[in-house]
Amino acid sequence: MKKAFQTTIKDRFRSFSPKTKTFIKLCAVMAILACGPSPMDYAEYFSLFYPENASTPAATKPYYFSTNFLNEEPYFYEETPSPKAETVEETENINAWEAYLKSKVSRDVIKSSLYGESKLSLLASKVSAFDKVASLYLVFAQEAEAATPHKVNYWEESPAVDSIKIVDLIDKADEGFQNATNDFLKERYLFQKIKLSGEIGRYDNLIDDFAANSRAIKRKSFISDWSKSRVAGATMALGDTANAVFMFAQIFNDCPSRRFAADLSVRRISPKFFAEALELATKSDEKANVLALQGIQPLQDGLEILDKIYDLNPKHPLLELVFAREINKNEMAFFAEKNSTVYGNFDNYYDDNYKIDQAKVDAQHKKGETYLEKLLSFSEKLSSDGKVENPPFWNLSTAYFLYLKNDTKAALELLNGMKVDGNAKLKKQVEFLTFEMMDKTPSDETEQKMLNTVASFTDIKEFRNNNLLLKMSETLANYYANKKEEEKSGWFWSCSDDKAGGQGNAVKAFLAHSIAAGSDYGSGYQIGTSHNALIDTCSSDFLQKLIAFTQSKDLNINDKKLVELSNLKPDYMNLALARRQVSESKFAEASETFKLVSAQTLTDNGFDENFESISNDIRLGSAGSEDSPKVFLEKLADLKTKVGEKNATAIDCYEYGKGLYNLSYYGQGWILTQRGKSTADLEYNDELKSDYYLTENARKAFEEALSLSPEKELAAKICYAGALCERNQYLVKYYSERPDDYSQEESYTAKMRKNELPKYRTFFTKLLKNYQDTQYQKMVLKECETYANFVK
């Protein structure tokens, strides 16, 4: 018990901002998952609409709405295989060289030379056998690449550039351009000249070079767009931002391999430059391109932009992308209840005490509700006009809004017969909406259909898959629980609190919820739950019903499917039941339940390392025989019976109190009720009022033992054990009431020690006053620094 009452304050987690706390929690989850694949995506948010529903051009996935405004790739990305797939740029360039060389050199050699570990000289040597001028260009390109090194990481120093060498290379590029006999090589030499000029700041020269020489190239390819991108960058560097924005807008639309460069170049610039660029456009498509590039910028409402794009070109290739962004962006507000705490959230939902402010959540939801009404009107207009390129997307968008509005009939009319060939995500979206709005009149056929649909959504590859499964498992659970939704129109009544419609099957509802739950510590996503979190809410009576159902030999085909999808294993449920029985003081039953849990499962759950049958606090260094969890609980059950009888003895009550104490946070038997614990629980856990922390039941047992006139040595032991419980209760009070303001802690600690601590020294007082002559008191005086200080 040394330093038992020490309350030295450390820098505290609870004083951090909510954003910082969330980041720390994410880091903790990532650390837990560090030894295996992790689905962690720091741009996760609650969304039920796939942006992939939109038919969009190549290389536009990074421009789906994201809370990650720089469009960086998240930690986990469905489309990032290993080895990494070719980029659009790589594919375009490799294919172009393969066609130019008429497949005389393998694609693998071309790819490795252009973008892999091989050097261009390897490709040049193979090409020289049949095309010397192309070989000379490749040698030159390698020389140009070597002369213009770039840092890999932003924190590194930029490598030195030999400007004299680059000027010489510019002259060589010009000579190559003049002497080239075909457009393929002319285009590339011109690109190299423009790129090299930009490296040494010759912006006026490169703009003039492109204007003067690009006309000589009759059959232009994506390489000319690469040159245009450099020209646009030079134009911006020279201060003509509006013209640069206009140029980047055309490049973004026309050149998939330079979309990233075009977007990054205009990020965070003032909207006025888009307005000025729009004035420079003379054609409808040019204007629509400017608007589309503006439409994918963050922190704006894009509906007005969408209206203008549609008026200019109803079939614009980026129209659906911009609209999908608006849908997803406004889900952040519409689902504010769920999105208020995600790491990627950029709105402040907290009050001055870092608690979620429900008024702010409600206001944001209302804002999203209002804007989604406008989006619905827009999608309905485009669905009915007959001018758009891809009617299924607009019908699906309308159906999604109607689903949120709980207009089931109108939504299903749009979904029925919708052609979804060729777009896997759109097919999935239709299946999800159909499932959510299907007729759920109870029957074996309805249940089977629902289970089969949910099963098809259990392969989770990214956060939106997880969101849909969460919603569907909730819907399935409501079906089993016989919960009915209010027959009332309005935004997303289907996601509001349902009204119970009679007695349902709670066990099957629980199993349905478990389908979307991740095992152990969860799925790794911020939104969702885990089997642990769900099963920890269950009483022992319910868990017994759950186990009985899942292990019944009379399950029908639907029941078996539900149990399989829940992924709840017998050992897992029995261990949860045993812990709940211990928590409910059903020690005899718990002992029997522990017999059903395999030794390997107990080992895997840390029992070998974390269980001892006697608390170290009470042991005071003395050795004692150790019991297994089963035997410990059998003895505790026997003691519980004894202390309830009229002839209970002091030793019975003392031993019972010791057992209860050992089950607490401070004991060595905590693992019989908890999966884990931390030395920081008292400081950072908001829920400290349970007996697990307070040890009130153990204290009562020690009080009872002392009232039964024990002999002095035993009484001294009882007093010390009771003092431990009082220490625990003081610590709970101290940490529960501790102010968040760090500057107040010193005065708070002094006040607590003066006014509150004496109230928790009654057992110490009895030990000193009544049992000072005992050997045990003398040992406590020697071993316990806190008691020694008290005696002084």
Explain what this protein looks like in three dimensions.
The chain is mainly alpha-helical and 792 residues long. 60% of the residues lie in helices and 1% in strands. Residues 1-38, 74-79 and 486-502 have low confidence and may be disordered.
Descriptive terms for the model:
792 residues; mainly alpha; 2 strands; disordered N terminus
The unreliable regions are: 1-38, 74-79, 486-502
Strand composition percent: under 5%
Give a count of the beta strands, DSSP E runs of length 2 or more: 2
Radius of gyration: 35 Å
Question: Order of strands side by side in the largest beta sheet?
Answer: 1-2
| Mass-distribution shape | elongated
Average pLDDT over all residues? 89
Helical percentage: 55-70%
Major β-sheet annotation: 2 strands, antiparallel
N- to C-terminal distance: 17 Å
Oligomeric state:
single chain
By DSSP (H or I, 4+ residues per run), the number of helices equals 41
- Which structural category do the helix and sheet elements fall into? mainly alpha
Topology:
Elements: H1 18-32, H2 88-100, H3 107-115, H4 120-127, H5 132-147, H6 163-179, H7 183-199, H8 203-213, H9 222-237, H10 241-254, H11 259-266, H12 271-280, H13 284-295, H14 303-312, H15 319-334, H16 336-339, H17 358-385, H18 391-404, H19 408-415, H20 424-437, H21 444-455, H22 463-481, E1 483-484, E2 499-500, H23 506-515, H24 531-535, H25 540-550, H26 557-566, H27 570-583, H28 587-594, H29 599-604, H30 607-610, H31 616-619, H32 629-643, H33 650-662, H34 681-684, H35 691-694, H36 696-707, H37 712-737, H38 745-756, H39 762-770, H40 775-783, H41 785-791
Antiparallel strand pairs: 1-2
